[in-house]
Design goal:
- By secondary structure, the chain is of the alpha/beta class.
- It contains 36 helices and 32 strands.
- It folds into five domains: about 120 residues, Rossmann fold; about 220 residues, Rossmann fold; about 100 residues, ANL, C-terminal domain (GMP Synthetase, Chain A, domain 3, 2-Layer Sandwich); about 90 residues, ACP-like (Non-ribosomal Peptide Synthetase Peptidyl Carrier Protein, Chain A, Orthogonal Bundle), CATH 1.10.1200; about 230 residues, P-loop containing nucleotide triphosphate hydrolases (Rossmann fold).
- The chain has a nine-stranded mixed beta sheet with strand order 3-2-12-11-13-14-15-16-17, sandwiched between helices. A six-stranded mixed beta sheet has the order 1-8-7-6-4-5.
- The longest helix is centred in the C-terminal third of the chain and has 20 residues.
Length: about 1000
């Protein structure tokens, strides 16, 4: 016979159906008690959270019941009455008591298959008080449910009947007792009813017995393997709740909006326990959709927790934030900086990205609430666990270096239940090995750079896919993206990527155009070594219900597609070597690298199976045969067939071409002196990237500009200055010469986009972020087409009180660029650096800088064929830049300029450094005399580990400042070929020595 129990009495016997309904369900919330005038004092707010002066426990709920009985604790919709604090603790206790009466022991596993909502929250909290709650995904199929229950072996199941997989039927087939949960939407959240059934007894030899104090068992997402069972103890859970409350400064005035699944830690503990244990309230709004978000916003939430895909949906639909909302907490998956910036703009609220795991009961690190205190791309600082970043041997890595994130502390689970040896090993003596790769800066901010299991082994080079994802997500037409490893016959694995296009981004007919634009946009962001070999457009990137990426499913989906055609051995025998001698020679070198029997004139290096590592090997092999030349790996990408490479070498490396052909060359090629007509022709061909400057806005704080031609020692000088604590000296920025970032990008185009890596390297040095995060920051600014003045301001904000040193030789090409420095900055200082013209010309010629400088001088619409020989171009650049600089500095006060000769810089570096410091009003710093020290701190390394430094790629081949470098030109030339204009300018700058005439002929042996 069924009987009802009075909601306030506990002495009535249990019946077949027990009514567990709040006696106050008809009362409405006292809205006047909910204040929305937020306190901004984090310390004060935290004291209010812990006003009881006691650690968190189940008794905390009773504390808030006594403190605010008439206030709402749990809400669902505007139409249903809320559950009040007066009833919450008692209702949970009565559900727990009913479970005990079904024979549920303290260590019994209570499986829960119920849809997200208030009733599920109440039942789960009650199950945690009397046993071990084990929530299941209510969307599982019958087969998936059977697998989950066999893995979990619950002692009883609580189920809401009518779910897709019919959990009650699955449980019956496995002999698991079942309690049915029912409620009416006409009642308040406390109106849940439970049937009765006797739980299975807990066996003494239970192989799944959890550690003492376990209150919750969650299953990992199972993105790459079978889900693991994670026990969380009462100590784990309360430590996590307290950490979350501190990190968000939660008070009793706060109200969370819960739209997440309640079989994961986020929807179950973050959004139930934290709001309630802080004395606030929670809106249980069900499954996320834009409609449920809007409905929940009607109940005045102060914060909401969402996965990035959900945040993206709000941005796309322009869903507004309610006026009560303080912030949005981003969880479950990496949040791209582009989406974060767009969401903060659209919603007008801070986005707080965190890092958490099931194994830590939730939060590990959290960003500050104040966006001004957040660091781009960082997941914040620890709010509980002790974090170590370790190398594969278990040793801590240096600050800023990447390694595995290892955690210790009260939030960390005791270890997986019934785990395989490999899984159990992640809980080691030194802590919980997360499998996440990250790095920390000196302030304790953590950046995640990928999963160790997700690393792509591309020809022995380990590549993290997260940075590729971030680059793709920075593009305005990409809604979602995921890079993944695809099998490759020679590289082991190759990079491929799946992308989801934003609605209306491109019509389907223009798909190939979109993919081409995506490749073009990614190339400067990733470099050639991290470019995906194939890009697939998909409707959705596979993720778990909690939002975690499932890269392995993409690999399975696309692994069967045919690859670029490489001629098999039988067909290759029919191919012919190139007819042109230089092309045939190149083909021979490349074929040896690619292990091919023959290579045709038009065969593409990369379509023939070449990788980025093999491209570097091919370039290095050619350079090893001509060690006096500097051959860049980009040459293989710019000219990827033997025929094209032969043309490339002929244009940029005539000495190599001549020596391949067995010819002789004079170093000066018999060139005559440059005349006035040559100089006028040069001036006509050089284009200006910046029109007449128009001053506007407030001046930027002072900066230091190094004005010099290339190959004049500017890299050495900036590396010395970077050693001073008061200075910030990044590689070439290429900012002042362009009005905005779009014009800057257009000027350099795709082929020379790698020369723009100085700006992201500067943000790396200024903020401590990773290469991909810095590149994403720059990409976001490019997308917004920031004026260069605004970019300078952002960089100045990042470096604080330090003086910016901008060393970009290109600035001196155009008088309008130099003039803009005076108009843009507040009392800038100029260092005019000069080197003997023959020293500069020799260095320019050896580095083959003409292939980089001619496109830079003429712009995207200029003639790509340079009419001048390398030596002539070097002399014209030297003369042009110094003439502009001398004229410009005549109008600058003497106290804001200094002339430094390269010969003095390397001959007496200390005297030069002291003189510089005196001009800048700074004390001398001895660290300036060791420019090769601390490459990362001085930014004399590349943007990435395999990159060369922008400026002087051979900088680190030196062991110290060498005074002999000033005189090496004296044995390089056999005649004085300077024009009269260059000679006069050299004399004026103090470079008076000349070459003695000689008729020696230089022969090259082949």
């Amino acid at each position: 016979m069924a009987r009802r129990i009075s909601p306030c009495r506990r002495d009535t016997p249990a019946a077949a159906i027990v009514q567990l309904q709040s006696s106050h369900s008809t009362r409405r919330e006292n809205r006047s008690s909910l204040r929305h005038d937020r306190c901004t004092d984090t310390g004060g707010r935290a004291r209010r959270v812990h006003g009881m002066n006691e650690p968190l426990s189940w008794a905390t709920l009773d504390y808030w019941r006594r403190r605010k009985p008439a206030d709402a604790a749990i809400l669902t919709t505007a139409a249903r009455p809320p559950l009040l604090w007066a009833d919450l603790p008692g209702l949970i206790a009565r559900i727990a008591e009913h479970l005990r009466m079904q024979g549920v022991a303290q260590s019994a596993r209570i499986a829960i298959a119920m849809p997200p909502g208030a009733e599920t929250a109440l039942v789960t909290l009650a199950a945690m008080q009397c046993g071990v709650a084990a929530p299941l995904n209510p969307e599982l199929t019958a087969l998936e449910l059977a697998s989950a229950m066999r893995r979990l072996r619950p002692h009883i199941l609580i189920v809401r009947e009518g779910l897709p997989g019919r959990p009650e039927a699955v449980a019956q087939s496995l002999g698991i007792p079942t309690l049915a949960a029912a409620w009416s939407i006409d009642d308040g959240p406390g109106g849940v009813q439970l049937t009765s059934a006797q739980a299975r007894a807990v066996a003494g030899d239970d192989a799944l017995a959890a550690p003492d104090g376990t209150r919750l068992i969650l299953q990992t997402s199972g993105t790459t393997a079978e889900p693991k069972l994670v026990p969380l103890t009462e100590a784990n859970l309360f430590a996590s709740a307290a950490a979350l409350m501190r990190s968000l400064s939660l008070t009793e005035d706060d109200r969370a909006l819960n739209l997440l699944s309640q079989f994961h830690i986020g929807g179950l503990w973050d959004l139930i326990a934290a709001p309630l244990f802080s004395g606030g309230s929670v809106i249980c709004g069900g499954v996320f959709s834009v409609a449920t978000y809007r409905a929940g916003c009607e109940l005045a939430p102060t914060w909401v927790q969402l996965a990035p895909s959900m945040i993206h949906a709000l941005v796309e639909t322009k869903a507004p934030a309610p006026p009560t909302l303080r912030f949005v907490r981003s969880v479950s998956a990496p949040l791209s900086m582009a989406l974060k910036a767009e969401a903060q703009t659209r919603l007008g609220r801070p986005i707080v990205e965190i890092y958490g795991m099931t194994e830590t009961a939730g939060v590990i690190t959290s960003n500050p609430l104040d966006p001004a205190q957040q660091k781009p791309g960082s997941v914040g600082v620890s709010v509980g666990p002790t974090i170590a970043v370790l190398d594969p041997s278990g040793r801590p890595v240096p600050i800023g270096s990447s390694g595995e994130v290892v955690l210790r502390g009260p939030q960390v689970s005791p270890g997986y239940l019934a785990a395989a040896a490999g899984d159990a090993a992640v809980f080691a003596a030194d802590g919980f090995h997360t499998g996440d790769l990250g790095r920390m800066d000196e302030d304790g901010h953590l950046w995640l750079v990928g999963r160790s299991k997700d690393l792509i082994n591309r020809g022995g080079e380990m590549i993290g896919p997260a940075e590729i994802d971030a680059a793709a997500l920075s593009l305005p037409w990409i809604a979602d993206a995921a890079a993944f490893a695809a099998p490759h016959p020679t590289l082991d694995e190759e990079i491929e990527m799946a992308v989801v296009l934003k609605a209306g981004a491109q019509p389907q007919t223009a798909l190939e155009t979109t993919l081409a634009a995506t490749r073009d946009a990614l190339r400067p962001l990733l470099g050639y070594g991290r470019m995906p070999a194939r890009i697939h457009v998909v409707q959705a990137v596979p993720r778990t219900p909690g939002g975690k990426l499932q890269r392995h499913l993409l690999a399975e989906q696309f692994s069967g597609l045919p690859r670029a055609h490489v001629a098999p051995a039988a067909d290759r025998a029919a191919l012919a070597w190139p007819e042109r001698p230089v092309a045939r020679w190149v083909a021979g070198v490349w074929a040896s690298v690619l292990d091919l029997s023959v290579m045709g004139a038009g065969e593409d290096f990369f379509q023939s199976g070449g990788s980025s590592l093999q491209a570097a090997q091919a370039a290095a092999l050619i350079q090893s045969r001509f060690p006096d030349q500097m051959l860049y790996v980009s040459s293989v990408y710019e000219a990827p067939t033997p025929d094209q490479q032969a043309d490339f070498l002929g244009e940029h490396y005539p000495e190599i071409t001549a020596r391949i052909l067995g010819e002789t060359l004079r170093p000066d090629g018999g060139l005559t002196h440059l005349g006035e007509a040559d100089q006028m022709r040069f001036a006509r061909l050089v284009r200006s990237p910046l029109g007449p400057h128009v001053a506007g806005g407030r001046p930027i704080p002072p900066a230091i500009f190094i004005l010099s031609p290339p190959r004049s020692g500017s890299t050495l000088l900036r590396a010395m200055m970077a050693g001073h604590d008061a200075l910030f000296a990044p590689p070439e920025l290429y900012l002042l010469s362009h009005p905005d970032l779009a014009a800057r990008r257009d000027w350099y185009g795709r082929a020379h986009a790698s020369q723009l890596e100085g700006l992201p390297r500067a943000f790396m040095g200024a903020t401590g972020c990773s290469a991909e995060e810095a590149q994403a920051v720059v990409s976001e600014m490019e997308r917004d087409n920031l004026p260069t003045a605004d970019v300078y301001l952002r960089l100045q904000t990042a470096i604080g009180e330090r003086l910016l040193v901008d060393k970009t030789p290109f600035y001196g090409v155009h008088p309008s660029v130099l003039t803009s420095a005076e108009a843009t900055f507040e009392r800038p200082i100029y260092i005019h650096l000069s080197r003997h013209p023959y020293g500069m010309i020799r260095s320019f010629d050896q580095a083959r800088l003409g292939q980089l400088w001619w496109p830079r001088l003429t712009g995207p619409d200029g003639d790509p064929a340079c009419p001048f020989a390398s030596r002539q171009l070097a002399e014209l650049i030297w003369t042009h830049i110094h003439a502009n600089t001398v004229t410009f500095l005549q109008g600058v006060p003497a106290d804001r300029q200094i002339h430094v000769r390269y010969e003095a810089l390397v001959g007496d570096p200390e005297a030069t450094a002291r003189r510089l410091c005196a001009t800048l009003g700074l004390p001398f710093d001895p660290a300036m005399l060791d420019p090769l020290a601390d490459p990362s701190g001085r930014m004399t390394d590349g943007l990435r580990a395999e990159s060369r430094m922008i400026g002087d790629p051979k900088f680190h081949s030196h062991s110290a400042i060498d005074p002999r470098a000033a005189d090496q030109w004296k044995t390089a030339y056999d005649r004085d070929f300077l024009s009269s204009r260059a000679g006069a300018l050299a004399n004026a700058l103090g470079h008076t020595e000349r070459v003695d005439a000689a008729d020696d002929r230089v022969e090259f042996d082949v």
